[in-house]
Amino acid sequence: MKKILLTAFVIVSNLLWSQKIQHPALLLTSERVNYAKKMMDSDPKLKEAWKIIKKQADEALSKNDLLKTDYLALAYLMSNDKKYAEKAKEILLNSVRGKQWSSTDEMMLRKPAWRADLGFSHKCRISAIAFDGIYNTLSEAERKEITEGLFNYGVVPGLGDWFLEPTRIHSLNSMGHNWWTSCASMSALLALSIANEVPQAATAAVKFYEQLPEWFAFAGDELQNKPKSFDKNGGMYESINYANFGISEALVYMLAWKNAYTNTKPLEIPELKNTPDFFMYCAYQGDNKIQSLNFGDSRAEITAENVMLLLYALGQKEDNMLWYLKQTETGNNREGLYRNTPLGFLYYPDTNKAPKEPNLKNSQLFADFGWATLRNSWKPDATMLAVKSGHTWNHSHADANSFLVYHKGENLIADGGHCWYPNPAYREYFFQSQAHNVVLFNGEGQPANQQYEGSMLDGKLTNLLDAGTIKYVLANATGPTSNNFIRNFRHFLWMDNIIYVVDDLKTYKEGNFEWLWHLEGEVKKSGVDINVKHNEAALTIRPIYPEYITPSNFVHDYPTFSRFEERKAPSEDLKGETTYYSVKSPVAARKIKGLTAIVLKEKETDKMPKIEKIEGKDWIGVRVHNNGKITDIIINQLADGTLMHSNSWIWAGGWETDAYMFAVTYDENSKPENVAEICIIYGSALRRNNKAYFGSLSKLNVIQKLERNTMSVTIDGQPLINVSFYTPKQLDTLLVNGEKTTFDLNSEYLSFKLDNRIKN
User: Fold this and answer.
1) Per-residue DSSP letters for 523-566?
2) CB-facing half-sphere around the CA of 420: CA atoms within 13 A
3) pLDDT in tens, 559-579
4) What torsion, rounded to 10 degrees, do the Cα atoms 108, 109, 110, 116 define?
5) pLDDT digits (tens, 9 = 90+) for 490-530
6) Which among 62, 242, 411, 606 is least surrounded, fewest beta carbons within 10 Å?
7) Looking at the DSSP assignment, which residues form a beta bridge with residue 740?
8) Domain-by-domain residue ranges, the chain?
9) pTM here?
């Protein structure tokens, strides 16, 4: 079998070697350049972008900057003015006549020395684009000198360190994140650009193309505690910043290959199928501008137009991608392929027919690496909740169970940010739990060593439900915080305009729990509330359990209330100092429940809903009067692992249940038994007045709504489900997880079966 594969590789290599590349053919192709010339007069966006590019090229004529030779090459191809090609040639010749290319001193000090780093790979990329662009202006002698130099200065150390035997240093297990695709792909791009003149480069380019899918398919490893690179739903755990960078570097090589060898079969990389959706789910549109989730080492302004543009050029064309690209045509990310960059200029698609909103679900779970986004719509300035609880290591911060809230165009509940990695503030603050919206115990979050060694026990996100006005997801940070916590669960229950955050906490010893809040905008404490306002966006945070915060600054008069305190920390990129906030539990405990209501407001002056505590034997809860409805939320104190073999039955406000938590909503002029909406979290029954409003052998997560003659059920928890519901009126339609479903109706009870064993 090995002999057959080797023979096949040699045949492919020889076949491509016989197909000389017709320069310019990699990225600044004749086809793309001619189309841009044709469209220039009729496309004002293109015309404006060209002015910017030409200005950059004109400025580069008086300099000796290798990293601007792609602008010079494009200017030559667009204008046929040889002064641009001559300058690019001069710079390329100087670059291979000078000292050997190398990485930074930091990388060269490693054992063995890393000859190729990100700066090195960028040189390879730009040199490849420039050489391909001016190829036909060079004499045979000039080509020979440049290609031999590029091979020895770029390809040999680049692919030698990152890909080729017998000199390879790195493996996918040690450096298989964004560095690998950048350093290896760009060195391979350089090899591809000189393939006509250097047979060894041609062979290396073929070999790299064949093996590139390994990076996408990397499944992690147990021994060195490395996670898989890609979620089954398309996400990459490193952050939006590094996902965009790492994926796009691979796509640049794939596009150059496709352009150079138009008849070769495309690579099979199934991980890319859902990648555009990942970036869209992790985007928030406020005031006609997209910002991205900044979990980990990323920034709000960093977007994924690189990946979208390159995938679109490779043939993965979706209308949703046009929606995204329409809003990222211009930007300030130094690595962005905007219209006013050489590749953006040639490859940015026509976005005039982009849809106003993407055709996507409102919520998405990336369970493999622990991200989730939930929103009330895809309209600009909507509300979005983003939750993270997954692997901690490298660019993925110690932020298990942290969350962000975007509302009316603003990121009101935010992340602490990050700074340049060598600065002590990065490892001492920005990476650590203190910079995130989490719960600390005795001032401690995740162990600091997880930045380097990783979290051996990762956080998890599960059980996402979205029933429109009611949404739910469960976060579990017990693993990465197991130095202190036996249980560290966080439930997010979003009902109408209130997000309820329920923390289920248990530790090995007694101590103090502390809730951290990183807030953007004007923050003002008012009685038991924390009000946050930024521009037109406003919300109110009300901690309810374990206790309200002190209603005044006379904290000594409220010894049993939680303490609201300010904390100081460096702001992102060390531009100054910022304030974040702490809510401390009033007394030491080993086991505690936290319940916080986040009220989303249309206007700052909106009246707060009436929220009151309700409690009974073995349960706590709240009753909420809001917009003509009453919602009772009950938390079962016996369903948190307190009991081993006995079931966790409680009787609360006339309801009998074993559910961990449930919520019932009814009209304020009606009675609880006339319930219109039910949400059950981890329960097998909900009963009242000898009627089983819900019944199942297994504990499930359920949202049930009754509207006219239709019952809608959103449900999960087991692969095989047999469930029944009380139906006080005749029903015509049953929707289960959004799909019309057959059902049995016996007297007042509706029942159905759901079997996902084969699907799972």
Assistant:
1) EEEETTEEEEEETTEEEEEEEEES-PBPSSS-GGG-TTSBEEEE
2) 4
3) 999 999 999 999 999 999 999
4) -10
5) 999 999 999 999 999 999 999 999 999 999 999 999 999 99
6) 62
7) 735
8) 6-347, 362-605, 609-759
9) 0.95
